């Protein structure tokens, strides 16, 4: 009935109700109400106010079907004007029928009950019709729906990326810590134990820094970046931790991190980290060979370690290898991981002396930008 109130106020201002025929009142009402409503729709905040009212008064099952954002363009203003006109017109129609039904019931009391039920049905129908108008005219536009879908996709991608970062960083730290602790328990040399404890402390502090950075990103605070994400310039730290854990590392990286795009350097670091972590986890103490070079606009990375027979087959790969493949695909590259020098079906029975596990990744520099 709010629409009828607006039309009634305008009617009282001009042309009034005394000595005015119904036809003239309707014509004057249309001539005055529509321009006023269109002018009101030009105010960006009008769309927000109408959306809030529609949510509160119409009670949609899904509130997101009715937007509460101010008008962002002329298309939104046009739809807001149509909504205002439809709202007032529907209110006037329901109000006029209510007055007619009330007068008829006053003249014929026997008609009061059926007329009341009919009026109740009309009000329910009008409410549903107005809700349909609100969803259609006040709902998000196609561009807004697309933007919302893109925002949800971005949030999902960001969460997946953070999950990979946590797996790689914390998984590597735990692997190094477990290997170092096991070696320190078996070796009686106090100096070796001191170095192992120092390596555990360094790895733990680095993992805490990574964890704090990830938590800040998840909280979406203004200070979204606590520390820069590691790049290829920090791979020597990985190799030092692996050597301290008792796995010799033969590394040749013929590439400088400063020459790579930032995203490519960061993802390459995580890939090498996953390769070293897998080697420490599945082949503790076995030599690790890491190679990296840029050839023909493509960054090639490889990590190889000998199969020791202690869960070294890793057929299909775990979450870490899936994360490496996802990183490679997102950067337009490719990833290969599996036993080297033997039939994959016989990897569990392979001779550790001649077989090895190889992780090889190729990332194009152009797409990495």
Name its key features.
single chain; 369 residues; alpha+beta; 5-stranded mixed beta sheet; 5 strands
Helices, strands, pairings?
Layout: H1 2-13, H2 22-41, H3 44-58, H4 74-107, H5 112-138, H6 142-186, H7 190-219, H8 235-244, E1 249-254, H9 262-282, E2 288-295, E3 298-306, H10 319-330, E4 334-340, E5 356-364, H11 365-368
Parallel strand pairs: 1-2
Antiparallel strand pairs: 2-3, 3-5, 4-5
Description:
The protein has 369 residues and is of the alpha+beta class. The chain contains 11 helices and 5 strands; from the N terminus they run ααααααααβαββαββα. Strands 1-2-3-5-4 form a 5-stranded mixed beta sheet. Strand 1, helix 9 and strand 2 form a beta-alpha-beta unit.
Beta-strand residue fraction = 5-15%
Main sheet characteristics: 5 strands, mixed
Number of strands: 5
Structural class: alpha+beta
> Radius of gyration over alpha carbons?
35 Å
The strands making up the biggest β-sheet line up spatially as 1-2-3-5-4
Helix proportion: 55-70%
Would you list the SSEs in sequence order as H and E?
HHHHHHHHEHEEHEEH
Q: Helical segment tally?
A: 11
């Amino acid at each position: 009935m709010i629409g009828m109130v607006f039309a009634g106020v305008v009617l009282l201002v001009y042309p009034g109700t005394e000595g005015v025929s119904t036809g003239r009142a309707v014509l004057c009402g249309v001539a005055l109400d529509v321009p006023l409503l269109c002018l009101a729709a030009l105010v960006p905040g009008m769309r927000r106010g109408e959306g809030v009212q529609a949510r509160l008064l119409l009670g949609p099952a899904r509130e997101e079907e009715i937007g509460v954002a101010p008008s962002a363009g002329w298309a939104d203003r046009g739809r807001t004007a149509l909504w205002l006109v439809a709202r007032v017109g529907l209110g006037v129609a329901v109000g006029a029928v209510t007055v007619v039904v009330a007068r008829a019931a006053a003249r014929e009391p026997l008609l009061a009950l059926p007329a009341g039920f009919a009026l109740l049905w009309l009000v329910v129908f009008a409410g549903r019709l107005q809700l349909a108008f609100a969803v259609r005219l006040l709902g998000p536009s196609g561009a807004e729906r697309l933007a919302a879908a893109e925002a949800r996709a971005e949030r999902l991608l960001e969460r997946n990326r953070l999950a990979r970062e946590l797996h790689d960083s914390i998984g590597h730290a735990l692997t190094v810590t477990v290997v170092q602790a096991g070696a320190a328990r078996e070796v009686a040399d106090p100096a070796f134990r001191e170095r192992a404890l120092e390596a555990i402390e360094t790895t733990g502090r680095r993992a805490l820094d990574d964890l704090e950075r990830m938590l800040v990103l998840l909280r979406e605070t203004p200070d979204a970046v606590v520390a820069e994400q590691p790049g290829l310039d920090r791979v020597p730290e990985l190799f030092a931790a692996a050597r301290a854990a008792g796995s010799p590392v033969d590394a040749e990286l013929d590439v400088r991190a400063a020459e790579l795009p930032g995203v490519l350097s960061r993802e390459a670091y995580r890939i090498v980290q996953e390769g070293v972590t897998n080697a420490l986890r599945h082949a503790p103490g076995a030599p690790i060979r890491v190679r990296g070079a840029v050839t023909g606009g493509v960054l090639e990375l490889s990590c190889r370690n000998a199969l020791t027979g202690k869960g070294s087959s890793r057929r299909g790969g775990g979450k870490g290898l899936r994360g490496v493949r996802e990183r490679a695909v997102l950067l337009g590259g490719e990833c290969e991981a599996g036993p080297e020098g033997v039939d994959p079906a016989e990897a569990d029975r392979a001779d550790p002396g001649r077989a090895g596990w190889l992780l090889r990744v190729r990332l194009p520099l152009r797409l990495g930008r």
